[in-house]
Amino acid sequence: MSSTQHEANVARGLKAAINNPRVSDEAKESAQQRLDNIEGATTEQPTTEHENRVMGGYKATLSNPNTSDSAKQHAREILDAASVEDYSGSNQAEFDEHQTRVLAGYKAALNNPRVSAEAKKHAETYLKEQGAL
């Protein structure tokens, strides 16, 4: 395990202790101090990988049909402020490919003898809702 992963695990544990009602106030204060030290050391220069994941989350927000318009607008603002280029087209293609694979999986379930009748009924209902059957 890398030291970065170890620090992340420690930080998660400290956050859990801070929010645990069974932990004493003294222990919560100590955990908060340790967390501040860890976050102070790690948040000065965020990693490129972390930034990519965050921006990827905002990109995914734009193509998620269950996301509100205000959340999509916020995601656009963040991506524009970060000068992320071409965030609409490539993500839509990935979303379309994902949807195609989901539908193919449900269609395969209909013909699989090891799938229960209940699961086949669910697959059929989903496919009808999506207009794929």
UniProtKB/TrEMBL annotation:
Q: Which domain of life is it from?
A: Eukaryota
Gene Ontology, cellular component aspect:
cytoplasm
Annotated Polar residues bias: 32-46, 61-70
Instruction: Spell out the residue ranges making up region: Disordered.
Output: 1-74
- Pfam families named among the record's database cross-references: Con-6 (PF10346)
Q: What protein name applies here? A: Conidiation-specific protein 6
What species is this protein from? Marasmius oreades
